[in-house]
Design goal:
Alpha-Beta Plaits; 11 helices; 3 domains; Leucine Aminopeptidase, subunit E, domain 1; alpha+beta; Phosphoenolpyruvate Carboxykinase, domain 3
């Protein structure tokens, strides 16, 4: 297991917590389902934080009622590490409880609400707010109990979530002046570094962000309505299709709001991709993963000439994909051997590739002018040119070397979703489309068999 610690001293902590809060909400677990968020105490954010605190308390009460919990404990949320004024925190929480009590129907849960904290001054503030706000009501207010912890500050319990192949641990230590630490851990160093790069870019997001992922096409009406329905009045969320790639464009008044909606969209896409892979695996058993192999220097010359240093080569060995490829070859009846061709894919789809093979959603080129299929390049240099605009998206570049059954080909055209007929019979189609600098486009993932994934870095001169 590899660990990578991301220093958060230079990052807005609010953005980090928004990121993790949304991720936890999207991947619930016993340790994360009750995680809530408030903005840290910057003077102009206090007013922004109040509705979030009210919403958090109401959500706690709602969850307690849904799960028939007779009692619930609520701490002084965000009044510690993030320095939200404890007096305001206590007043807002208790006032929210008062309103909830007035509106709750008889017999609803929770019956016993305990306001708790690890230090006596904050507990006393909670008691003060209760005495003031519930004065003159019939609500019984219990006595203050002393904190069971010492006056010394203790580190908070780390927050842990699993996102794909990476585990994120957010560790708080109130004695650590450098701020919270985000620890990324996975079995692969490249995966760690990709996660770090993605998070760094996310934290420095402005009020506008774009999610590029062709699996956006699989989002249902309910998901899209939820994504738009949760948006603030001044937040714009637009789904569109541009040059062969589905996109979600988010424009918000604050970076925090933009980040929240990016994470919501990404969480929905993760669920869609997982379901997509599950359905494919039902027909393609024995999922596999890339296996590291020794670097063959003979294969690296093309990469070196293009200014790429190969850091690792993964051999893809998947018997079920091989069987499907051979069946497709027999079905096509082509005597010509398959071609060795390249495709560049984003980092996030490498594991899907090794598990379920090629899909057209992975790697649309910068300009799909030869059809809406699965693109391959006959040379590495052509692949670099075809996917040049991907260069800024990942820390590394991922090139797949594959056997491709091109069969009978014809010149491709923009917007074709399948090959045209060979002749007058509309059921007899070409096997692939061609164009440009030795580019082939196929429309069936079983026409290509992944052999190796080359993980490369751009050589900086």
């Amino acid at each position: 297991m590899l660990l990578l610690t991301l220093s958060l001293l230079g990052f807005p902590v609010t953005r980090l917590l928004l990121c993790l809060a949304v991720a936890m909400a999207s991947h619930p677990s016993p340790s994360s389902s009750n995680f809530h968020l408030l903005l840290h105490n910057v003077s102009n954010q206090v007013l922004q934080a109040k509705p979030l605190l009210v919403k958090t308390v109401n959500n706690i009460l709602k969850m307690a009622n849904q799960n028939n919990l007779k009692s619930v404990a609520i701490p002084a949320l965000s009044s510690g590490l993030f320095n939200f004024p404890v007096e305001k925190c206590a007043d807002i929480i208790v006032e929210t409880l008062r309103i909830h009590n007035e509106c709750a129907y008889p017999g609803s849960y929770p019956c016993d609400i305990r306001l708790v904290n690890h230090d006596d001054p904050t507990v006393k503030e909670m008691e003060r707010a209760c005495r003031k706000i519930f004065s003159g009501t019939d609500v019984p207010v219990g006595k203050t109990l002393r904190s069971h912890t010492s006056s010394a500050t203790t580190p908070s319990t780390p927050l842990v979530i699993q996102m794909g192949n990476v585990r994120l641990t957010l560790r708080f230590d109130e004695q650590n002046t450098s701020g919270p630490e985000l620890i990324l851990s996975s079995s692969c160093a490249e995966t760690n570094e990709e996660a770090k790069g993605w998070l760094e870019n996310l934290f420095h997001c402005s009020g506008m962000a774009t999610v590029n992922n062709n699996f956006i096409q699989y989002l249902g009406v309910e998901e899209l309505q939820k994504l738009n329905g949760d948006a603030e009045p001044n937040t714009s969320i637009e789904e569109f299709f541009e040059r062969g790639c589905a996109k979600i464009k988010i424009q918000a008044e604050s970076p925090e709001n933009a980040i929240v909606h990016v994470l919501k969209a990404e969480a929905m896409l993760c669920a869609v991709q997982k379901e997509f892979a599950r359905e494919v695996k039902a027909h393609v058993p024995m999922p596999s993963a890339g296996v590291p192999v020794d670097v063959d220097k003979g294969k690296l010359r093309d990469f070196e000439r293009l200014g790429l240093r190969v850091k690792k080569i993964l051999k893809v060995d998947h018997p079920a994909l091989m069987e499907a490829f051979e069946l497709k070859k027999k079905q096509m009846g082509s005597s010509a051997p398959p071609r060795l061709m390249y495709q560049r894919i984003p980092a996030q789809f490498c594991s899907m590739l090794t598990s379920i093979g090629f899909q057209r959603e992975y790697a649309p080129p910068d300009d799909p002018k030869y059809g809406e299929g699965i693109y391959f390049a006959g040379s590495l240099s052509s692949a670099v040119d075809l996917w040049r605009e991907q260069s800024h998206q990942d820390v590394y570049q991922y090139y797949v070397l594959a056997q491709v059954l091109t069969g009978k080909s014809t010149t491709g055209k923009r917007d074709l979703i399948m090959p045209p007929p060979v002749g007058s019979d509309p059921l007899v189609l070409y096997d692939s489309l061609v164009g440009g600098n030795d580019i082939s486009v196929v429309f069936n993932g079983h026409q290509a068999l992944p052999q190796y994934i080359f993980i490369c870095q751009k050589v900086v001169i």
